[in-house]
Amino acid sequence: MVFGLITLSTMVPTIIGLNQATQNTRDSEEERRDSARRQRCNLIAICDEREGTLEQRRQVHNAKVYLGPDGNLYLTKTPVAGFSPFNGRFFQHPLFAPDNMAGFVTLTEEEPPMLRWVFVDADTHECRWGGRQDSEGHVCGPYNWTKDEQRITLQGWEGWLAVRRPDDEEREQEERGLGIAEGQGIWRLYFDEHDDGADLHPDSQVLEICLQRVPAES
Ligand SMILES: *[C@@H]1O[C@H](CO)[C@@H](O)[C@H](O)[C@H]1NC(C)=O
What we know:
The chain is α+β, with helices and mostly antiparallel strands. It has two domains: 1-38; 42-215. 27% of the residues lie in helices and 28% in strands. The chain has four helices and 14 strands. The protein has helices at 2-38, 54-60, 132-135, 166-176; strands spanning 41-46, 64-67, 73-76, 84-85, 88-91, 103-107, 115-120, 127-130, 143-145, 152-154, 160-164, 187-191, 205-208, 210-215. The strands form four sheets. The protein has a six-stranded antiparallel beta sheet with strand order 4-2-3-12-11-13. It is elongated and about 70 Å long. 2-acetamido-2-deoxy-beta-D-glucopyranose binds next to strand 9. Residues 1-17 form the signal peptide. Keywords: Signal.
């Protein structure tokens, strides 16, 4: 039927046009996601209202993640000398497939500034930063973000913990030379890899937290 043929031939370019448009949308969505994954971020601890005591939440909720000079990651609202804010992003890690962006790095305030891996100590479950050799044999990924791209996951979930070990209180008071004011305090960042409490000392203070990405300014 002539009519049918005409219809078909006018339809075909439209279908191709639609596919092309869909493809373009998909490409630009991929580009957007790619550049979002490359965006360097600070990390902020988010603590549910049901976690811990009011005073503990006051110290932890909205506290920023810092790199300590000892190679560990900390959470606090009142950083001490030598702490620098976590300032990092997803990064290809050689352990995972190419183009994976499943590793995690941070800029440091070393002289000169360096990009360092962020990993979880396989023995202590404490979060650390360091060079390739420091991170070998530890948990280096896969890191990802939640569906809304707002929070960081590791090995597919948000097993982050804010921790104060029994020895932290004492040492902190020595270092600061003063009592700790309300809402202050320095917490350690842990990852509960096996969802069993991360082998922490029973007298530790522990709060489950999420890590929120906040675009870094520099
Ligand atoms: C990363 O997370 C996103 C959003 O939840 C998900 O769609 C994607 O499949 C995840 N990627 C990997 C490699 O697991």
